[in-house]
């Protein structure tokens, strides 16, 4: 988990702070950070998931889960 945090911080610094900064106030930094986190979690293309956005991959996952055959009403289910 620590490596993941270091990776995210390593991306945040150059992509948010250095490109959008310097910031004059803490509120400017907060707004830029919220914007970057939103982009990072929802809009970035990620190579390890086929250059999809995380939201697209999540939607694909749930679409696949929900399309699996569901038991018919009254059908016996074995676990």
From TrEMBL:
Organism this protein belongs to: Microbacterium elymi
InterPro entries: Integrase_cat-core, RNaseH-like_sf
SUPFAM superfamilies xref list: Ribonuclease H-like (SSF53098)
Name this protein carries in UniProt: Integrase core domain-containing protein
Domain Integrase catalytic, first and last residues per copy: 2-54
Pfam families: rve_3
């Amino acid at each position: 988990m620590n490596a993941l945090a270091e990776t995210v911080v390593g991306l945040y610094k150059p992509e948010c702070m250095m490109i959008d900064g310097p910031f004059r106030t803490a509120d400017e930094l907060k707004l830029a950070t919220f914007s970057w986190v939103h982009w990072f979690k929802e809009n970035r293309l990620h190579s390890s998931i086929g250059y999809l956005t995380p939201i697209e991959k999540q939607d694909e996952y749930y679409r696949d889960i929900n399309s699996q055959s569901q038991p018919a009403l009254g059908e016996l289910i074995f676990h």
